[in-house]
Amino acid sequence: MEDGSRPRAPFFTFHFSFFILPLMNPDLLPLARRQFLSRMTTGFAGVALTHLLGNDLLPRALAADPQKWAPGRPQFPAKAKQVLQIFCPGGASHMDLWDYKPELEKRHGQPLPGEENLLTFQGKNGPLMRPPWAFAPAGKSGKMISTILPHMAKHVDDIAFIHSMTSRTNTHGPGCIFMNTCFTREGFPSAGAWMSYALGSLNDNLPTFIAVQDMRGEPPNGKANWSNGFLPAQYQAVTMAAQQPLRNLARPDSISKSEEKDTRDFLRFIDAENAAQHAGESELRARMSAYELAARMQLAAPEVSDLTREPAHVHALYGTSDANPLKAAYARNCLLSRRFLEQGVRYVSLYCASRASSVDGLLNWDAHRTLKADYERHCPIFDQPTAALLTDLKQCGMLDDVLVLWTTEFGRMPTQQAATEGRDHNPDGFTCWMMGAGVKGGMSYGATDEFGRRSVENVTAAYDFYATVLQLLGLDHEKVTYYNNGANRRLTDVHGHVIKDLLA
Fold first, then answer.
1. Are 165 and 455 in contact (CB under 8 A)?
2. What angle do CA 286, 292, 297 make, to 5 degrees?
3. How many Cβ atoms are within 10 Å of 56's Cβ, its own excluded?
4. Which of 3, 56, 130, 469 is 20 to 30 A removed from 16 (C-alpha atoms)?
5. Each residue of 136-174: pLDDT tens digit?
6. Measured between alpha carbons, how far is residue 32 from residues 23, 40, 359 in Å?
7. What confidence score (pLDDT) does residue 471 get?
8. For residue 440, what is the DSSP state?
9. Going along 40-122, which residue ranges are E strands?
10. Which residue in 396, 389, 472, 475 sits closest to 434, CA to CA?
11. Contact at 8 Å (CB) between 98 and 431?
12. CA atoms 473, 476, 480, 485: torsion sign
């Protein structure tokens, strides 16, 4: 065209065929209208049918081709089938627990070289501060670990420590979200939701993904830590804990078993009709699935939650009757987590501590001002029950299938926070670890510098961490995707590499 613009032939042809041509020949008007309406309704019906049958036919078609993958099964042989994630919110201090730094002992009270006037999350920093407790070698590997964790020290030969973790934020809420979803903003699926979507359930009578909250409350940013994000709502976690029995689970005495069954059958029929009319409503399908699961859980949940079925020596191992009510409550949640895994729950997120309070370090590991006092409160709560859970899983042979993760949102500074006896936030270097199915125990991967200030060797982030988790579960982190808002989204975003050194 003379003005350089493109001719719009298809658009012109359509309008000419259906509007101009009939005007030129009135005999064609009824035919053209009928053809247009017929083709239009047939096309819409095809679109609707494709949507309705897609969830049923597509997985079957993909399953017939071993080169393709559909959610609900691994992509290649897996070394792990289930995941237990232990999360300590608040930013647990790596150099006071897992990451031995003798230079902190030698240079205690001296300025941090090169960062003498450093400003961090809460402001100015003082001199270097040594850990309040000594480190000692543990296990056959001789791993140096803090003496404030005597029970956990017994497991170092089975643990793969990652000492070079980094985060993209130094704030608790976004930090917890990042460690659980690989994004600092809410609205993205948690790792447990991705695993539920990718692998499906191992037990139809219990949730696929369970979040076990600490009795002190939810972690920073609450339910976003176990959200389904943009995945269908059925993949979000169900929250259960020893101190939070499921409400309204038992059938009222006034309703007979036959009445309950007939009511459920009728509701199932109505729900199915409604779902067919609203095929795109994932929230509706999730609600229906939740009610159906709740019905099955009436039998399964009370049994799995009944800790009195455990022998006395198991309760003693965990410390469920400890004089410290916080420790006893966490111990019961540890025992409950083992029972969930035993019954085939795919992903269990177990929290030790909660969100921040008006007093730093009171309810979680956020030791800004009084690190020694704070950790002498938190470590005994964490140490024995967690070690007992690991021991129990190992004795039961469950570590052949269960991958155990220990995580926190970031680490802490090697310096004293100005005018305090605590440490400020440090997203530039911290420790997480793995243990169990497919993991090479008794090793340390990566490193922070001589003070624990920054990760300097084999620097890693949540992307690499979960790429490795997915690999152990038989999944390629680049191929586990879900289409949302014009993009094939994945847990690891556009980052991540499998940490092959950790694989057994």
1. yes
2. 115
3. 8
4. 3
5. 999 999 999 999 999 999 999 999 999 999 999 999 999
6. 11, 12, 76
7. 98
8. -
9. 82-87, 119-120
10. 472
11. yes
12. positive
Whether the predicted pLDDT of 359 surpasses 90: no
> Can you give the pLDDT at residue 67?
55
Residue type, 334: C
Helix (H) or strand (E) holding 377: helix 371-395
The model's pLDDT over 326-348, given as tens digits with 9 standing for 90+, comes to: 999 999 999 999 999 999 999 99
Q: What is the CA 114 to chain-centroid distance, rounded?
A: 37
pLDDT value at position 117? 85
φ, ψ of residue 102 to 5 degrees: the values are: -60, -25
Q: What share of the chain in percent tops pLDDT 90?
A: 68
Q: How far apart are CA 428 and CA 129, in angstroms?
A: 18
248: Cβ–Cβ under 8 A, 6 or more apart, which residues? none
Q: Minimal CA–CA distance to 285: which of 232, 361, 341?
A: 232
- Looking at the predicted structure, is the pLDDT value of residue 49 above 80? no
b/e 155-173 (16+ beta carbons within 10 angstroms → b): bbebbbbbbbbbbebbbbb
Q: Are the CB atoms for 202 and 344 separated by under 8 Å? A: yes
The backbone region for 441, taken as left when phi is positive above 0, alpha when psi lies in -120 to 50, beta otherwise, is beta
Structure tokens at 487: 């993009």
Which residue in 137, 181, 82 sits closest to 466, CA to CA? 181
Nearest one of 139, 138, 151, 146 to 94, comparing CA atoms = 146
| 265-291 pLDDT tens trace | 887 788 788 878 877 676 667 667 766
Total-model pTM: 0.82
**Tokens standing for 278?**
């609203």
Separation of CA 106 from chain center: 39
**Contact, 193 vs 236, CB < 8 A?**
yes
